[in-house]
Predict the 3D structure of the following.
Amino acid sequence: MLSRVADSLYWMSRYLERAENTVRLLDTNMGLMLDKSSTSAERRWQRVLATIGKPEGCEWKGDVYEFVDQLCFDDTKAAAVTSCIVLARENARQVREEISSEQWQRLNRLFHEVTKQTDSDRSELRLSEFLPSVVDGIHLFQGVTDTTLSHGEGWQFIQIGRYIERASSTARLLEIYHHDSFTTMEEVHDGFEYLEWIGLLRTCTAFEAYCKVYTADLTYDRILEFLVLDADFPHSIRFCIDSLVNALRAVQQDSRGHHAEELMRLSGRLQASLRYGQISEILERDAGIYLRRILDLCLQIHELIYEVYIRYSVQTALAM
Amino acid sequence: MSTARPSGHLENPALAEYFLDHAFDEMFGEHGEIRPQYRELLEALTSIPRDELQRRKRSADVSFLTQGITFTVYGREEGTERIFPYDLLPRVITSAEWQHIERGLTQRITALNLFLHDIYNEGRILEQGFVPREIVYSCQHFRRQMRGLQVPRNVYIAVAGTDLLRLESGEFAVLEDNLRVPSGVSYMLTNRRIMKRTFPQLFRSYGVRPIEHYTQALLGTLKSLAPEGRPEPSIVLLTPGVYNSAYFEHTYLARQMGIELVEGRDLVIHDNVVYMRTTAGLKRVDVIYRRVDDDFIDPLSFRPDSILGVAGLFNAYRAGNVTLANAFGTGVADDKALYAYVPQIIKYYLGEDPVLNNVETFLMTDPVQRRHVLDNIGSLVVKAVGESGGYGMLIGPHSSKAQQEEFKRHIEANPRNYIAQPTLNFSRAPCLQEDGSIQPRHVDLRPYILFGDKVTIVPGGLTRVALRKGSLVVNSSQGGGSKDTWVLSY
């Protein structure tokens, strides 16, 4: 597979995953707003901003509707949902001959649905219909991807993009919540009530799955355990890293130099730490540092993928 | 200009605005009688209610858009991707008409390939004065670098798209040959797919000859041109990238053929061998179906400012390590001034009269012909020889005095750069209008010719339509559209 193609498939997948994460984050928090909650709007939306990486030019100015509208539709902002979908489609367009036509049509339709939204379409009510419809569109795309595209190298790069993005975003979300609940003085731990924990779980589509394992008894350490260490839940960091390592193994080529070894070593070590980690241990040390470390490793893995498959030097390649 | 109505069909309200004059009408004969090959189509149209037709048109539109069958419009901010407007009614060509076209095109491409080999080697035709040297050497697409270079099987033009018009007499004539990177074949193929869905019954009963094997034939042609000793050649399609107006076509063809679609930045040249960068390291490339013009393909040999090409590609080509289709320097054979000499070229190499005639062409380098054009510019079409896609063109009868004066100045300043032709009243075919009526619009026809170990011309082509009433311009870049072309098997 062409390096450029692998690159585009990887980013197509990352951008869609990112769009989905942002949409769910906005949708969940808009829903929580309707309930009485002790968390101030200010604090809630600041937390949302931090979770998506404090994108430049995006600020909380006190109007929820305007805020969400901006994060959905302002395509001058790279983090906006529309921007992510436009970029995903642009990457797909560059590799149209490599993806299935069903995939292309599904993504193209989503693109047209999202970009044709006019100001008048964007009332609060429409927004609350729009957000879940984007998630639906992305889920359809993923379903079509899994059923129409050969599960060869291209598909594996799509998995790599999806899981590295999802692992990073879950880690960042947990880090922000951790930071917020332990360092904000206005409410200490016990004031951080039930609704907030539901919000956190819902943002990861994890509420129902959590209840199946731990019942509806929501506690911080169990939630952390579930979202970090659960082996079976598709949004837990462990699940994401397991999937990532599987995909990396599937595309691994023999004798690709020391960068390839480094990539397998680094991702394997992360996988092992999640597989054999214990929540008590993580909490004892510092969960914040632990989560930040995962984010760092994801970034390093990303860099190494580039070194091995995409940006390698011609000299080394000819020598091999 | 006298206008008449087709006789005997006035009861059909959709035809109320149909008019006939001295232009050849594809559906009706001289006296308004319907041509047999259109009878069934017209009957079907009469039996389908207008709003049902509109519905089918809309559903086809949606299909084009969601499939992303679009072209990129240059120089516009908004909506840079557009669907290529198309007309729902097919153009029908009889088996006998097609046989004639096929024979003519085969003869033409064979002669043009011989011509290119000759001018880049011995130059016999120039020596003997059948084609003036100046025309060849002053052509901006002539590539000195190609002299004496042997190309596989002596195939210079592997892929061509030749534009045909039907004159008032009903006879087909060649308007121009496109021998560099002809485009549009993907629209021929996708139009067909959508038409099959839009008129399934009609399609079945008509006995239309299939065209779907085009991509397989293209792949076979490319394969047959691989360098010696590469029995399982690796073939790629080289595109300028996603901003090129024909990008959809590039992705479509690469996918249909199952070959890699590469950009210049994917290729690396080492020791005169071309490689592509893959996730498994560098992989050798043997044949490049390039959709990048000569000028941009190798910044070392041609335009140094090009970022689309690959440095060193020409040297790898010269070393015989990679084949390019089409070869460098084929543009000299589709130069609009050289076009006037194609009948002589056919006669010189094949000893035959041309099956398909040229359109009368005035060369500005000839003082007598130039005088004639300058005096009659208001009734002629003037074209810049280096332009394509309907740019750099003056249509005399539709132009202002000021435009005519401007073109006269251009011609006098640089006669080699212009040719003129009579304003042709080429044929019209029935087209479905927005309001549901059927009206005649001017059409041309671009069949696609493949030349490898044999000549393949799939029965059909891209029929381009001037969508506006009275307009003679069919180019997509100028607002033209297209329609499916049905070549009948009987």
